[in-house]
């Protein structure tokens, strides 16, 4: 019998190559159902979808075999012809972030020997929550940070796909920041804090903001991280130039002065100086 089955399989493979048989040929069954269904759940019926006679299934020793060395994911109830889930299927474990999760199984019938393909299309359910790798995010911000300054926040990750992956972010109500959500070109979203009201160290030394990432499943799932902001004193002794003054001053100073002082500027957080000034300074000195 094994031999016959092997020969039939070879013949089918050969015909497949020869005629470029489509993925689901006539007589094959294709079933779409959600992951994580209970063992024994009915996902289809051999009589209805594959045109087989239920009364003959037992006599023909109908059985499901895994394709290759894979696992058996479905089974047949010989008295009803129902195709049932053989074991719980975890889509993320099998297919990760792939948008299509397709498993093939083989239905074997004897007398006469017949092989039919069963294609299982596993759909994602929202069984995972968004998660931030770091539960605590720390920022040091100078009180001289200007309105509109942006601080990129870590992206939340969700093992699910499509609408069941992270769709939006929000932050707890606070006086200083609003949240900007950005869609990445390759899919996925992240957010950034945008300074709306300038920080004042005399009033606030630290700020704690709860960041929430939410997916679009039903029901929705979410994950949180806590953003800790430490407000730093602006250095009162540091010279505050307007852009024009800075160009004037820096264009007058010597190379020696720059060598002695550049660390003072370059090692500071960028937010303390306008980017334009930073770039201009560099430019002026590089052409000297
Ligand atoms: C097959 O289906 C019948 C009717 O639903 C049920 O009574 C029986 O337990 C099932 N057999 C198996 C092996 O699942």
Automatic annotation (TrEMBL):
Record keyword Ribosomal protein present: no
A GO molecular-function descriptor: calcium ion binding
Swiss-Prot/TrEMBL GO biological process terms: anatomical structure morphogenesis; homophilic cell adhesion via plasma membrane adhesion molecules
PROSITE patterns, A to Z: CADHERIN_1, CADHERIN_2
CDD domains: Cadherin_repeat
Protein species of origin: Poecilia reticulata
Record's keyword terms, sorted: Calcium, Cell adhesion, Glycoprotein, Membrane, Repeat, Signal, Transmembrane, Transmembrane helix
Membrane topology: Single-pass membrane protein
Gene Ontology CC entries for this record: plasma membrane
UniProt name for this protein: Cadherin domain-containing protein
Pfam family, one: Cadherin
Domain of life: Eukaryota
PANTHER family attached to this UniProt entry: CADHERIN-87A, PCDH2G3 PROTEIN-RELATED
Subcellular location: Membrane
